[in-house]
Design a protein that fits this description.
Length: about 350
C-alpha cells in the first residue's frame, strides 16, 4: 500500500478520479486539502503505481507526490525546518552531485496562520543539500522539463507530508506551475503563460526560424510568445491585439475569422486558442493542415464546457484524419479546457492558395 498527493483542476475532479480508478479500482480518497489537491491511498506499492500512471499518461492528473513520511509542525520556522530536514534526510537519496529541486506547498497554514512561507522552507532545505555538493535546479524562475530529483514538502494545517522522487515520476517538473509564473507576471494576457507551460510540458524546443500562425489570437499573448522566439507571426482574430504588438515588425494581424482567409505560404507551427467548441476547433485545424509544413506541430486548446470525455473523444476523432495526436494534458494554466499537441500527417498540398500573408 502507498499514499500520494494528487493535483488536478477542480472542474475535472470526476475525470481525474476515473483515471485513478483505472489504475487501481480500490483507491481511496483520504483527505481533501483544498480545491484541486487531495491525498489517496492505493493497494499498489509506490513504484508500481507510478509506473502504471506513466504508462497511462493521464490527461487530468496534473502532478503527484508520493508520501513517504508525515509529521506535525509547530508553526515556528526555526523548529519546523530542522524537524523537516531531519525527516527528509531519511528519504532523500542524493549522491553529492545530483541535480535536485526543493518544492514546498503550504495549502493551509492553520487557524493562526504560519509565520513563514513555502519559499523559506525551500531555501533552507536547498541550501543544506547544495552544501553537500548537489546541484540546485531552481523552479521559480522559468518552467523546466528536466528530470531531476525532487524533495517535496506539503504543509496542510498542522501536518506536513514529505516525498522524494524524480520530476518524471511526479508527471510534472513542478507541483505548481501557476505559482511560478504568477511571480513573473504577464505582459499581454494570462494566455502567455499557458503557451509557455505547454512548450515546456511537451518538451518543444522552438528555434524561431520561419512563420507561425496564431488563431484566436486576441489580445495577443500567444502571438507575443512566438514573436519573442523569433517567428514571423500571422495573428488571426476578429478582436484587436494589444496596441504595443502592432509596432512589432514580426507580427501581422488579420482582423477577421480564419475561415475568411486563404494562404499561400506554409507555416512551421500553428497554435490555436479559439473560444469555440472542441469539435469546431478540430474541423478548423483539419482545414489548416495542408498549410502546415510536413511533420509540423500544432498546439491547440480544446474548450470543454459540458461533456468532457465525449467532447475529447469526438474532437480527437476529427483531428485524427490529418494529425497524429501526440498528447493531451490538463495544464496548470488551463481552466475548463485541455491542451493538445498535434503532429501533421503526410498530406497533399492545398489546391487553392491565393493570399500571401507575409
Amino acid at each position: 500500500m502507498s499514499e500520494f498527493i494528487i493535483t488536478y483542476t477542480p472542474c475535472f475532479r470526476k475525470n481525474m478520479i476515473k483515471e485513478l480508478l483505472e489504475i487501481d479500482s480500490n483507491i481511496k480518497i483520504k483527505d481533501v486539502f483544498s480545491s484541486g489537491i487531495l491525498s489517496i491511498s492505493t493497494n499498489l506499492d509506490t513504484y508500481d503505481f507510478i509506473n502504471h500512471l506513466l504508462q497511462k499518461s493521464p490527461i487530468f492528473i496534473k502532478h503527484i507526490m508520493p508520501i513517504f513520511l508525515k509529521g506535525k509542525i509547530t508553526g515556528n520556522l526555526f523548529e519546523d525546518r530542522i524537524r523537516i530536514l531531519e525527516q527528509m534526510e531519511k528519504i532523500a537519496m542524493l549522491n553529492g552531485c545530483d541535480p535536485f529541486s526543493v518544492q514546498c506547498r503550504i495549502v493551509n497554514g492553520g487557524s493562526n496562520g504560519l509565520g513563514y512561507s513555502s519559499k523559506d522552507m525551500e531555501v533552507f532545505l536547498g541550501t543544506y543539500y547544495e552544501g553537500l555538493g548537489n546541484i540546485p535546479v531552481f523552479s521559480d524562475s522559468s518552467l523546466k522539463n528536466d528530470n531531476v530529483k525532487i524533495l517535496s514538502v506539503l504543509i496542510n494545517k498542522n501536518d506536513y507530508y514529505l516525498g522524494f522522487s524524480t520530476s518524471t515520476e511526479n508527471l510534472n517538473f513542478s507541483c505548481d506551475e501557476y505559482r511560478i509564473f504568477s511571480r513573473n507576471g504577464r505582459e499581454i494576457s494570462r494566455a502567455e503563460n499557458k503557451l509557455k507551460e505547454a512548450l515546456s510540458k511537451f518538451n518543444i524546443r522552438l528555434n524561431g526560424a520561419g512563420c507561425a500562425l496564431d488563431i484566436g489570437a486576441a489580445p495577443g499573448g500567444w502571438t507575443k510568445v512566438l514573436a519573442d522566439y523569433g517567428y514571423y507571426v500571422v495573428a488571426v482574430d476578429p478582436g484587436r491585439l494589444k496596441p504595443e504588438l502592432y509596432n512589432n515588425p514580426k507580427i501581422k494581424h488579420y482582423q477577421c475569422r480564419i475561415e475568411d482567409l486563404q494562404f499561400e505560404n506554409y507555416f512551421d507551427i500553428i497554435v490555436n486558442d479559439m473560444n469555440v467548441d472542441p469539435q469546431t476547433t478540430a474541423r478548423i485545424m483539419n482545414t489548416l493542415s495542408c498549410i502546415l509544413k510536413d511533420n509540423g506541430l500544432a498546439i491547440v486548446t480544446l474548450k470543454l464546457p459540458d461533456k468532457v470525455e465525449e467532447d475529447i473523444k469526438e474532437s480527437t476523432e476529427i483531428l485524427n484524419e490529418n494529425y497524429d495526436i501526440v498528447t493531451i494534458k490538463s495544464l496548470f494554466h488551463n481552466r475548463q479546457e485541455v491542451t493538445s499537441l498535434l503532429k501533421k500527417k503526410p498530406l497533399q498540398r492545398c489546391k487553392t492558395r491565393k493570399q500571401t500573408l507575409l
